Structures are given as C-alpha cells and as structure tokens.
C-alpha cells in the first residue's frame, strides 16, 4: 500500500486568497511580523528598546508597488530559504510571538505579480533575496492546468533565490508587492492609514487624547499599576516624518450630536492563580447614542496590541437584543493570558477552555456594567430632552395666551394644557435627580449638564404656575397698533412665531384677523409635529406679509 501523502496545489490558494475578507489585512500580517522581529532584536540586544524600532511602509500608486521594511533582527542567509519558503512551519511560538503559523507572510501572493522578501542579518556581509512569482503561481493552480502537479512541484517552479553583498552591520527585513492588481485598496494611502491606525500596535495621540497620559486616572497609570508595558511601535508611511497614532480623541459625535470624553475608566480580570487575563479601558462620555466615527466606535479587542477582528467583534458579549450597545462605547480590551490565542484569520480567538472561561467573565461584565450604563444614560438623556421640550412648549403657550389673537376658549384650553405640562416636568425633574445618582454609581458625573436643568425647574415653575392662574382670559380691547409687542424686530424662529404673526396682522381689519386666527387654530389642531407646525406658520406669516403689501 502506497502511504505517501500528496499535498495538492490548491492548498496554497486556500491559504492565501481564502484567508482574508479584506486585502488590507496583508498589512496587518506584515506589520505583525515586523514587530515580532523588532522584539527579537531587542531581546538579542541589537536594538536598545522599542523606540529604536522602526517600520517603513512605501506605497507607490503609479508603479503599483508596496513595500514594508523593518529594522528588526532579520533572517540569516543560512536559514532564509527554509524560513521564507516553508508553509505552515514557523519556528516562532504563540507564547512569545504575534505571528507563529508560518502562513501570513504569503498573504501578498493573491494581490500582486511578484512577492519579494529581502533580508539581512547583523554580522553577515550579505543579504538574501527570495522572489515568489505570484503570476506564474496563479496560472499553475488554475483548475484544468497542470493537474498532475502537487504543491512541491508548483513551489519549485515559482520560487527564486539570490544572494547579494550588504554592509555587515545591517539588519532588516523587507517585503515588496510588485505590480499590484487593479485599483486595489492596498494602494490607497488614506484607506491604508485609517486601517493601520485602528489595527496596528502604535502609540496614542496624547494631545488629542490626554486620557492616556493622565497620571492619576489615565490608561498609563493603570498600566504602571499592573506593572505592564503597552507594546507601541513607530510606523511611517511614505517618508512622512510623523509616525502613525491611534485615532482616539476627546471630542466626537454620537447620533449626530456633539459629545466629549470626560475621563476613562479601567478594568482588569485575573484567573484564580492571580495571573492577568485581560485589562481594558472605556471612555466616560454623555452616551448620547452610537458613535458616528467608525474608527472610534466600539470596544476593540487586542492581543499584543494588535486588533482582533474589528469594532463589531466585541458585540458577541452583549445579549442578542443589545449588540448595538457596543457602538455606544469607545475603548479597548487587551488580552494577556498565554492560552488566549488568536485564530488563523485573527477575527477572534481559538475556542479553548481558557477563552470560554474568559468569555463568561466578559459577558457578565458587559451585562452588569455596559448594559447598565447605556440603559441609565438613555434614561438621563431622554428625561433631559423631555424637560427641555416641555419647558419650551410652556413658554410658547404663555406667548399665545398673552396675544390678542386668541379667543377666550382657546386660552382656557392652553391654560389647562400648560398645567398638565408643568406637572409632567416636575415629575421628570424628580426622575432626573434619581437617574443622576444612578449613573454616578458607574463613575459618570453629569452634574454639569443636569444641574442647570434642575435649577431651571426650581426657579421658574412657581412663578409659571402663578402667571397661568392670574392670566385674564377675557379678550383685551387694547388696539393692536399701540401694543408694545408690535415693536418686535427679531429673526424668525419657533419662539417668536405668534409675536411676528401679531405684528403682521396689525395692518389687517379686525374681521380679517379673526378669520386668520380661526385658520391658525385648525392648523394647530391638525399638525402635531412641532417643526412642521413652525414651518407651516412661517409660510403663513410670509404670505400674509406679501398679501398686504399687494
């Protein structure tokens, strides 16, 4: 019996094209290998620290070429061929390295005609250049072509190696993708920058996001408390002197509304032996809804400070009906357990016992903390909005009642309506005081925005009630022409509609004014939405102004 195993040529296609849903993921693979190489250079005392490490990315859209180069340890000429040509056979371990499967470096084969590896090892006066002919590879593995060829035969026909002289102290690794196909995202500098800012292990921008370096409550203080060092590396694109930084910033928008980060809150979890499983941080804001900027949105999962999945991946820890809540947050969770291993696609972790245990812990935290924050913040926001809307409605009603254009019956209706609204606002004020205390349990202090509203209720409402009770419901006989309210000369807005209407109607006869107000009353009864009502009344005022001039 022939027991020799043949690995088919299509395996390579599955390990390259089949691995990535987005072509930009190859940047993650090569950056991942670069930071591992820099760490190894530090361990071997070739580099003093991470600050001395450097990753340069060059994108030439015209020539359709991309290169990624690091000043890490490099690969010796003796080991270069095996390390760079073996498939799924890496000497790296998952305990110490981010990349360890021996597959990621081949990701570029799907997107270019030639994939070139160029490397030098300190102490050697030569460099090794290995070229993979990706164009020829695509032809050889095309269904129907060379069906008798196995994977080894294909590789022997597409891999070329040469040795050239190099300075003895040089150490680096460079990968180049030549003749990238079509209008690839790989050549879009803006898209690549946005992607790497979210994915790569790079520093925070402390001027835009001071909560990282805050010595008391910031992320850096937590890292120091845990006796950790966050892995940060300098990545440059196209000779730009400024290295890439994470996109976090203090000011942002949620559901189209301006919001800002007030502080950050950190959290940790350890196993029963006291070993750190993960630590994380999330921003404390006004939680007005889903964060608009996709680069900021969601709790991001990271291992070795490289993103796992995307901003949606953390949604799995919320209940199915509340997955959208992740989008209300800005933050990160950094995994440290040795057995927490990113899967081959790096869109989640390998499903082992340790990850299942961690998932239970995070799911519980999401339910007890994140769900509660969203629920309680939503109640605060809704109550504040209701109070503001109703106070505005009360003021509008008062202006209507002071007008000569509304009859006694309508004024009585408005008076009753306002009393009801005042009761609603007072009850909402009591709720808001309670919610204010509840969100403080989450470390959220909204006093700056809540107290002015509570003060407004307290200072205005007693006088509002007195005014409503004392208003004379009889129609006043004062000549509109001499009424001081006719001196109004303001920009048109919702609060001044009736004053402006009164001013316009002052030039009309009494019977005409009454007819117009009957029409206005019908409009008010039929149009329920405030913005639509104001818009319609504005058109009425404009038409009445034009009509009288004619």
Description of the structure:
The chain has 550 residues and is α+β, with helices and mostly antiparallel strands. The chain has four domains: 10-187, 2-Layer Sandwich (Heat Shock Protein 90); 235-350, Ribosomal Protein S5, domain 2; 362-474; 478-550, no CATH class. The chain has 13 helices and 14 strands. The chain has helices at residues 10-16, 25-43, 77-85, 134-140, 151-158, 189-199, 219-225, 353-401, 408-440, 447-470, 497-505, 510-526, 530-549, and strands spanning 55-60, 65-70, 114-120, 126-133, 159-165, 172-178, 235-237, 251-254, 257-260, 263-270, 276-284, 298-303, 306-308, 330-335. The strands form three sheets. A seven-stranded mixed beta sheet has the order 5-4-3-6-2-1-7. Strands 10-11-14-12-13 form a five-stranded mixed beta sheet, with no helix packed on it. A two-stranded antiparallel sheet has the order 8-9. Helix 4 (134-140) runs antiparallel to helix 5, helix 8 packs antiparallel against helix 9 and helix 11 (497-505) runs parallel beside helix 13 (530-549). The longest helix is centred in the C-terminal third of the chain and has 49 residues, at 353-401. Mean pLDDT is 83; it is low at 468-495.
């Amino acid at each position: 019996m022939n027991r020799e195993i043949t690995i088919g040529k299509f395996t390579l296609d599955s390990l390259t094209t089949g691995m990535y849903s987005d072509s930009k993921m190859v940047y993650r693979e090569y950056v991942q290998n670069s930071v591992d190489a820099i760490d190894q250079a530090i361990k071997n005392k070739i580099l003093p620290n991470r600050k001395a490490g450097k990753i340069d990315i060059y994108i030439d859209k015209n020539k359709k070429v991309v290169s990624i180069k690091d000043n890490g340890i490099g690969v010796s000429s003796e080991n270069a061929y095996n390390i760079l040509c073996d498939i799924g056979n890496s000497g790296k371990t998952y305990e110490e390295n981010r990349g360890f499967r021996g597959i990621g470096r081949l990701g570029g084969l799907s997107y270019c005609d030639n994939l070139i590896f160029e490397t030098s090892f300190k102490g050697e006066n030569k460099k090794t250049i290995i070229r993979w002919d990706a164009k020829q590879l695509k032809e050889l593995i095309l269904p129907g072509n060379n069906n008798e060829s196995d994977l080894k035969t294909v590789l022997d026909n597409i891999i070329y190696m040469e040795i050239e002289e190099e300075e003895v102290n040089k150490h680096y690794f460079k990968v180049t993708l030549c003749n990238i196909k079509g209008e690839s995202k790989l050549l879009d500098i803006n898209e690549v920058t946005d992607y790497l800012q979210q994915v790569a292990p790079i520093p925070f921008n402390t001027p835009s996001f001071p909560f990282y370096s805050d010595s008391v409550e910031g992320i850096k203080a937590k890292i120091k408390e845990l006796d950790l060092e966050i892995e940060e590396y300098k990545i440059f694109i196209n000779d730009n002197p400024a290295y890439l930084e994470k996109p976090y910033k203090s000011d942002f928008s949620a559901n189209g509304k301006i919001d800002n980060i007030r502080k950050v809150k950190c959290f940790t979890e350890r196993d029963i032996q006291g070993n750190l499983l993960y630590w994380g941080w999330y921003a404390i804001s006004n939680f007005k809804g889903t964060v608009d900027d996709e680069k900021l949105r969601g709790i991001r999962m990271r291992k070795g400070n490289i993103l796992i999945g995307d901003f949606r991946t953390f949604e799995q820890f919320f209940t199915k009906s509340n997955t959208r809540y992740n989008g209300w947050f800005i933050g990160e969770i950094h995994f440290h357990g040795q057995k927490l291993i990113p899967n081959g696609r790096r869109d989640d972790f390998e499903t082992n016992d340790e990850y299942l245990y961690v998932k239970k812990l995070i799911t519980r935290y999401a339910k007890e903390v994140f769900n509660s924050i969203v629920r309680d913040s939503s109640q605060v926001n809704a109550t504040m909005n209701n109070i503001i809307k109703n106070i505005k409605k009360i003021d509008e009603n008062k202006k209507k009642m002071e007008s000569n254009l509304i009859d006694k019956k309508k004024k009585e209706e408005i008076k009753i309506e306002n009393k009801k609204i005042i009761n609603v606002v007072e009850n909402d004020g009591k709720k808001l005081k309670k919610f204010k205390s509840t969100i403080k349990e989450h470390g959220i202090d909204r006093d700056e925005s809540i107290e002015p509203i509570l003060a407004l209720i307290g200072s205005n409402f007693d006088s509002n009630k007195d005014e409503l009770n004392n208003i004379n419901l009889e129609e006043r006989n004062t000549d509109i022409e001499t009424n001081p309210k006719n001196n109004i000369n303001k920009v048109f807005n919702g609060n001044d509609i009736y004053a402006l209407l009164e001013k316009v109607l002052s030039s009309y006869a009494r019977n005409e004014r009454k007819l117009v107000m009957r029409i206005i009353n019908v409009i008010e009864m039929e149009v329920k939405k405030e913005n639509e009502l104001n818009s319609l009344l504005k058109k009425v005022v404009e038409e009445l102004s034009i009509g009288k001039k004619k």
